[in-house]
Design brief:
alpha+beta; Immunoglobulin-like; Glutaredoxin; 3 domains; 5-stranded mixed β-sheet; 10 helices
Length: 382
Amino acid sequence: MKKTSWMMAAFALAVMTGCEQEPRFSIAGEISEADGQMLYFEENGLEGINCIDSVKLEADGRFEFAHRVGDDAPEFYRLRIGNKTISLTVDSTEAVTVKAALPTMTTGYEVTGSEGCEKIKQLAVGQTRMLKQLQELSARVTAPGILRDSIDGQIAAYKRKVITDYILKAPASGYAYYALFQYIGGMPLFNPESNREDVRIVGAVATAWQQAYPHSYRALHLRNLALRGLKNTRKVQREQVPAELVEEVALLDLALPDMKGDLRRLTDLKGKVVLLDFTVYQTQESPARNMALRELYEAYAPQGLEIYQVAMDPDEHFWKTSADNLPWVCVRDAMGNSMRTYNVSNLPTYFLIDRDNALYMRSDAIKDVAQLKGEIELLLAR
């Protein structure tokens, strides 16, 4: 018995020693103006968001998290308070320091200790600046054709900068991978599914990642994305499909479960004017907001309006109870993947979609209910 006990103790000590030697990185710092708020440290994986740790902040806003280093490639994480997030990438035993104030946390933070995290902050700031420029442009230019050309030109210039300054300079980096999945106004900056040049850029990063991290599941994801895009673009060129027979899909589809567990696709609502709404029911403002949406729905649903409401509530029972009597399409996305698809950083946020499944306007460009009604009536009359 004594020998067995000694061997078990030795085994336990060896396991503990192994755990202590496991490579780890740390994320520490302070977030001011957040006394009493819950700060979540989350992993941003291909299959969704996974919460690693959390802490309730005190008056000084200090926090510290540690986690094991990924197997063989950069991984992606985020700090989150409510709907405000800071994106991070880590590929070694780095000690990353983050300082921010809650009101400006998403882009107004300072980060040190990681070149990758610093580059991601630059991309986040650039993305926000671009969105602001496009909103200002939309307010100044009223001619649809000129506005479209101006928007396309600004996005193209921003895209060239991202390719030159972030992707091609270090294609095997975490921030190069991150840059490929930026969204501007709800639309992807890179679309390798249909753009041959974007296939080339994704392929460059995929090749670099495969060489640097041959066993990485993200490298495989990029390779498959590039191959699928190459196949799609070659097929279009080979078949030379007449333009009048090509259906333009200007909408990123969502397929989320409703209260019965049935998948409801956003694109199935083609033919209706759709208000795509991202929200959280478990807030003080939600009941009054849904009451206002109900008035809107009752007024315009007979003419062809539909609401596709995506709830981010983590509590499924609360969501089902709250949505039970709502007359429109109610779905839930507890992982938040749909928010990333549509570049939503603040809740609630909504989009108007026309009868042809094309994005028409984001809530940021609508100043009040009167304007919203006017835009809906305009789309219904088309």
